[in-house]
Amino acid sequence: GVQGVSLKVRVTAPPVEGMANEALIDLLSRSLRTSRRNVCIVSGLSSRNKMIEVRGVDLESVQHLAE
Length: 67
Hints:
By secondary structure, the protein is an alpha+beta fold. It has helices spanning 19-31, 59-65, and strands spanning 39-43, 51-54.
């Protein structure tokens, strides 16, 4: 897959009880026009840096977010 690609995202939800993670999943799912169940935090649940898996979305759509 693609490596060395990162996307900087800021959410307003506080990092308390997973609220910021949920806000991130919501933002990405809406931006990519996919279901929330297709967006998963693979690593970094309690970190500022996260690895996200997005299923059912083509690479061009994901790369478009970085523009």
